[in-house]
């Protein structure tokens, strides 16, 4: 039942199957580039994302200057230029536009301009922070929707602290 011809056929079938698997693997690497390519540790990245852990640990954090001091040293004329971003919705002549007028806003009660309809979130915020202090204005104009979620104000905010200080100095000069 088991002669040499049967054994030869079995060994030939095994070798043929092994050859078929090797050829399919070789074709797959050629078509899809599945090999590492022998680069070792020198792999070129398309871009590198810096993380906080890559910064040296021995650096001291920058000194934080109080916003009140920044406003005291700020340039109101530069703030008037920054106000150009606000002028689309706000006026400083005592009349309301899309937003309430901003003359006299510094140290004014939050949501207190007569004739302007405030959003419910702003009215609720007025109960928590009743006065537009320098720090309150700074926080609000940094990120209005983050500071008062649900506010009708669609402005994204001013990222630069010096721009905010100049703007608040300009608004303070309108008192």
From TrEMBL:
One matching Pfam family, short form? Cytochrom_C
Molecular function GO terms recorded: electron transfer activity; heme binding; metal ion binding
Listed A to Z, the keywords are:
Cell membrane, Electron transport, Heme, Iron, Membrane, Metal-binding, Transmembrane, Transmembrane helix, Transport
Tree of life domain = Bacteria
Domain annotation Cytochrome c: ranges: 74-175
Main localisation: membrane
A GO CC term attached to the entry: plasma membrane
Q: What kind of membrane protein is this, topologically?
A: Single-pass membrane protein
Q: Where in the cell is it found?
A: Cell membrane
Residues of the signal peptide: none
- SUPFAM superfamilies to which the protein is assigned, alphabetical: Cytochrome c
Q: What is this protein called?
A: Cytochrome c
